[in-house]
């Protein structure tokens, strides 16, 4: 028996962009706290955050064909606060409003107040974790119904958000990128944590059911193995860790601030973004449902 995934690349893009937007805002707030001199990189985060989430929401609505036929269904999502989807709408709406407010303040050359930063960070973290909790609602899919998934998606979102800001910072504001040492070291830790969480998620999933085992095997040795090992593990997690370890801890200071090192960092952070998308895509398409047995009456 074959099984066609109920969701595909569009939903994976939505999950990735929503998490990236939240992570970008958190990165911007972190820069304001530890690197207040990185004014332009902070503004980059304020541009990426609402843009990524809005594009993700458009993709979600495009995927929800029935919602376009009957737009009232979107409004009805706010009527059941016992639903994860309802809370997701609240988090996404709140985050979008806060992120747009920060963007407008930047355009008006006015400072973003601390309370708005705190609200954006809270909503951004909630959005990133919600994307994992949304999948977990489907209890018949062992790969999704796992308490580690929201945590994994949060770490990945923070990593992707930071990578997006750093990538643009390398190209547009190299001087600020050179001074953002604390952010770069914090970001360096995230792929390592993510790799441990991926391993834990797969171990737990493969031991709880036959469907979980088959889902994990499709990633490790099955049809999704090339994307998993080459795309997610090698390009998205291991390579960035190796490159940043060398740049941050073993290369001379003069080289670390050179343009050659900048392009190495660019490749590293681009790899993180590739891995962030592939994580969600593989989790979506590799999940297999439990076999339901209905007794004969």
Automatic annotation (TrEMBL):
Localization, UniProt: Cell membrane
Membrane-topology annotation of the record: Multi-pass membrane protein
Coiled-coil parts of chain: none
InterPro entries: Electron_transfer_protein (IPR052049), NrfD-like (IPR005614)
Protein name as it appears in the record: Polysulfide reductase NrfD
Chain segments annotated as transmembrane: 6-32, 44-64, 84-105, 112-135, 147-171, 192-215, 227-249, 270-294
Family from the record: Belongs to the NrfD family.
Classification via Pfam families: NrfD (PF03916)
Cell membrane is among the record's keywords: yes
Keywords per UniProt: Cell membrane, Membrane, Transmembrane, Transmembrane helix
Gene: nrfD
Superkingdom per UniProt: Bacteria
